[in-house]
């Protein structure tokens, strides 16, 4: 079972999903599309068009609809199909619907879960942060969380704070496919000038490279 | 340069690099289609007289052939763009553009080859090529991330240059050989900006901006 069934996961930096764009996303076997409508709301859905299974992440956003690249079927923010170009007069059946996840934004991140009813992590509610970088790391997410914790990351295994070299980083993780993890890095607002963000990006890139090389990371206990 | 003849191939990404710059610059050329696959015409003795290494595409300028996208991009940008936006004359920017052209030729060679293997069933160590392509994309992703924090939307300086054109097609086409764009948010946004430039044209595998 994927962690999406049991918790809220940070799946992208809010800033990386600009209005009217979509992107593909893997979370432990799930293929998801994250997209932002023209009025700024973020959505996380299964990345599969109900018509013939084309990835919706290849499609394009029109206002508050996302349209499939293949035959142009359009879905509204509730996942309901609203328009089929080959049959423009058709009142589209209610059953043609894309399965959605619950999505929200906090701490500069887009979060998703399959369980609407789950409590949102309180630590993420109160943080204001500026985006730095999402890094794909060829290491299992638990190993990454472990390495980060040893380096001083204070969090719940998914989201937390890391003070390094005069920077306060906010780091969120999610497991991708094939034993990969995605690490979303931000800096706490207040130290968010370009300098701090550049230093944070360089730190995060070096950290990724060390973790992949199996080298101890700065601050990690031997 | 009145008399231009472009020997190109629709599915060849280096031909596309040149067609795209020509479109941005409003330069037109007579086109001669070279049947790379399955014809392998770029390997023929006749074509090798124009392009000794078999590099594609070839641009003939008043009968003088220029082979390969890097040489053609730099020459067109130097001769056909009075603003010098696409190949800045300022030495630091010029040098940076030229080093990214080298990056394209070297680090993205595996990405080009991986795509040809996938599309035209060529033999080769595709796992190694994909790994090399991913490491090149990661270098670009890191660079574009830093640029974006500094408020710069392009690889070099504050405007699109031939460095962007030399680099982005290999990334844009990576789904042809099974590398999705999930891991490269900064490159994805860069690609979107490129597709929205006036004069942008497509090739199979690189759709228009909708
Ligand atoms: S597969 Fe999506 S519209 Fe046909």
Concise account of the structure shown:
The complex is a heterodimer of chains A (222) and B (210). Chain A has 222 residues and is α+β, with helices and mostly antiparallel strands.
Task: Walk me through what this model shows.
- The complex is a heterodimer of chains A (222) and B (210).
- Chain A folds into two domains: 111 residues, 3-layer Sandwich (Rieske Iron-sulfur Protein); 87 residues, 2-Layer Sandwich (TATA-Binding Protein), CATH 3.30.310.220.
- The model of chain A has no long low-confidence stretch (mean pLDDT 93).
- Chain A starts with 8 loop residues before the first strand and ends in a 9-residue tail after the last helix.
- In chain A, the strands form four sheets. Chain A has a five-stranded antiparallel sheet, with helices on one face.
- Chain A has three helices and 15 strands.
- In chain A, β13 and β14 form a beta hairpin.
- The longest helix of chain A has 20 residues.
- By secondary structure, chain A is an alpha+beta fold.
- Chain B has a four-stranded mixed sheet with strand order 2-1-3-4, covered by helices on one side.
- In chain B, β1, α1 and β2 form a beta-alpha-beta unit.
- The relative contact order of chain B is 0.14.
- At the A-B interface, β2, β11 and α3 of A face α6 and α8 of B.
């Amino acid at each position: 079972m994927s962690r999406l069934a049991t918790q809220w996961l940070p799946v992208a930096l809010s800033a990386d999903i600009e209005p009217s764009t979509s992107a593909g996303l893997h979370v432990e076997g799930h293929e998801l599309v994250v997209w932002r409508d023209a009025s700024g709301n973020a959505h996380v859905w299964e990345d599969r068009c109900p018509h013939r299974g084309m990835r919706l992440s290849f499609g394009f956003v029109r206002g508050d609809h996302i349209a499939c690249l293949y035959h142009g079927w359009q879905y509204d923010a509730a996942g309901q199909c609203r328009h089929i170009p080959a049959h423009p007069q058709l009142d589209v059946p209610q059953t043609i619907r894309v399965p959605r996840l619950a999505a929200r934004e906090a701490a500069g991140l887009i979060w998703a879960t399959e369980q609407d009813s789950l409590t949102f992590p309180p630590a993420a509610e109160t943080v204001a942060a500026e985006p730095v970088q999402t890094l794909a790391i060829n290491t299992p997410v638990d190993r990454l969380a472990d390495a980060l914790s040893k380096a001083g990351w204070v969090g719940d295994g998914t989201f937390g704070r890391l003070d390094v070299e005069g920077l306060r980083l906010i780091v969120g993780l999610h497991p991708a496919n094939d034993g990969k993890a995605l690490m979303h890095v931000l800096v706490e607002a207040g130290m968010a000038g370009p300098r701090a963000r550049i230093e944070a990006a360089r730190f995060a890139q070096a950290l990724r490279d060390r973790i992949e090389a199996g080298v101890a990371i700065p601050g990690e206990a031997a | 340069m009145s008399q231009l003849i472009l020997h190109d191939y629709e599915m060849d990404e280096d031909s596309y690099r040149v067609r795209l710059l020509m479109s941005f610059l409003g330069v037109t050329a007579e086109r001669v289609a070279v049947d790379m696959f399955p014809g392998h015409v770029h390997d023929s003795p006749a074509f090798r007289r124009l392009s000794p290494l078999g590099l594609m595409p070839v641009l003939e300028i008043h009968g003088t052939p220029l082979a390969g996208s890097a040489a053609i991009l730099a020459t067109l940008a130097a001769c056909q763009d009075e603003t010098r936006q696409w190949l800045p004359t300022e030495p630091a920017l010029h040098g940076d553009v030229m080093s990214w052209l080298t990056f394209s030729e070297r680090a993205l060679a595996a990405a080009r080859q991986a795509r040809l293997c996938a599309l035209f069933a060529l033999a080769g160590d595709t796992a190694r090529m994909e790994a090399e392509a991913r490491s090149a994309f990661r270098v670009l992703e890191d660079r574009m991330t830093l640029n974006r924090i500094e408020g710069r939307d392009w690889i070099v300086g504050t405007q699109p240059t031939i460095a962007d054109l030399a680099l982005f097609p290999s990334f844009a086409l990576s789904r042809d050989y099974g590398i999705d764009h999930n891991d490269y948010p900064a490159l994805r946004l860069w690609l979107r900006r490129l597709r929205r430039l006036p004069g942008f044209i497509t090739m199979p595998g690189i759709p228009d901006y909708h």
